[in-house]
Amino acid sequence: MNDTTQPIVRMQQLNKHFGSLHVLNNIDLDIVPGEVVVIIGASGSGKSTLIRCINGLEEFQSGNLVVDSSELLPYGKSTQALQKIRTEVGMVFQQFNLFPHLSVLDNVTLAPMKVRGLSRDDAISSGKRLLDRVGIADQADKYPSHLSGGQQQRVALARALAMEPRLMLFDEPTSALDPEMIGEVLDAMRELAKEGMTMVIVTHEMGFAREVADRVIFIHKGEIAEQGPPEKLFDTPQHERTQSFLARVLKH
Amino acid sequence: MEVTFQFDWSAAFGSIPHLLPGIPWTLLISFGGLAIGFFIGIFFGLLRISPLRWLRWPAIVYVEVFRGTPILVQVLFIFYGLPQLLGSPINALVAGIAAIAVNSGAYISEIVRGGVQSIERGQSEASLSLGLSRTQAFRYVIWPQAFRRMIPALGNQGIISIKDTSLFSVIGVGELVRQGQIYIATTFTALEVYFMVALMYLAITWTLSILLRQLERRGLAGQ
């Protein structure tokens, strides 16, 4: 098997419980390099939990999970694999989670310097290039609180990309944004998808999902209820749950 | 019998040269004790938020014991009690510094715990997602933010500890109150001398307040 067909994420029979709540129920999911997967579903359906398992921010209780050929074990028992996976998998959060005590540029250069061991000069020059790419080069010396939400989220994207990840996770990246700022963040993500980045995106932006996704997954009560190419899933949903969910979210 | 209340300014001013030698002692005990207490506080404060129960409980016991007993009892225990155990006397200055250290350490560990716990979970999640280890996340992301939030409470504790050193006159260390007592024993001008003693404490604590306000303003300017 060569590298292009080998999945970068392989999830088999994954189960997660929060106490008595069964959050993820026997999830099987393979993601191949270059693929853009969008996960949709009602709030509380487990879609955020699912992608947070991929970089070990959430533990699972049973099943197999291999990310970039490192295996994550149930109950978070695999610190070394976890560390390795996290250096190769980037994440963008709903609340941006920028470091407020560091300048925009320092936000972007911190991990490459401390984790990848880049020199300060190298980290700064690649950091500036990334900030330029997401259109915030002129804000490099400001602190995050001086930026708009859309700008902050683009910095967060640049910060994740600075680690040169092989896979990017997006956990509702536009849900905390004012409507007029959603576009600029989606544009940056669209750009990234075009360049061939492997992406797993949890979002409520159905138009964006239809346009960018190679595959859309609908999650209902911790199970993958339905998945397929966007045209198929959005235009001719098979599962009754998918139909009623789409009817609700596409109405407005 | 007629009683007249007369504040004698010349007695007040005259006491100053006799009180001044107490200031270095007061400063030495308070800042020496606070410096050690700061590290004790960081140590137990971090133990207190460890995920491991057997690391948490020593911190809980430490805080309960030294926050729950009077500092006067603590210094008497150290100065008069411990020598019986050790078989050799303890220097009054050392006993004073130790009492401030263990006492402020208990309060500071609670300040540290609160400061670190006040940082949103998203900060450590973002750090970990970038591949930073837990230690790196703490050192570069969590601690610098937590420390800024701790500054007002630490300043408060500093001022309290400076005033607590006045109790150590009972073990004979030559701090401000002790110098006042010695002087009053010969002049009987308690009103004027204690007034000046109070002013000197105020001068120290007020200076500290001003420095802290500047530190806070500078710390916040970054954000």
UniProtKB/TrEMBL annotation, chain A:
One of its GO terms (molecular function) is ABC-type amino acid transporter activity. InterPro entries: AAA+_ATPase, ABC_ATPase_HisP-typ, ABC_transporter-like_ATP-bd, ABC_transporter-like_CS, MetN_ABC_transporter-like, P-loop_NTPase. One of its GO terms (cellular component) is plasma membrane. It is found in: Cell inner membrane. Keywords: Amino-acid transport, ATP-binding, Cell membrane, Membrane, Nucleotide-binding, Transport. CDD domains: ABC_HisP_GlnQ. The keyword Cell membrane applies. PROSITE patterns: ABC_TRANSPORTER_1, ABC_TRANSPORTER_2. Residues 9-246 form the ABC transporter domain. It is a peripheral membrane protein. Pfam families: ABC_tran. It comes from the Bacteria. Belongs to the ABC transporter superfamily. This is Arginine ABC transporter ATP-binding protein.
TrEMBL record, chain B:
It is found in: Cell inner membrane; Cell membrane. It is a multi-pass membrane protein. The keyword Membrane applies. Its main location: membrane. Keywords: Amino-acid transport, Cell membrane, Membrane, Transmembrane, Transmembrane helix, Transport. Part of the binding-protein-dependent transport system for glutamine; probably responsible for the translocation of the substrate across the membrane. Belongs to the binding-protein-dependent transport system permease family. HisMQ subfamily. This is Putative glutamine transport system permease protein GlnP. It comes from Halovibrio variabilis.
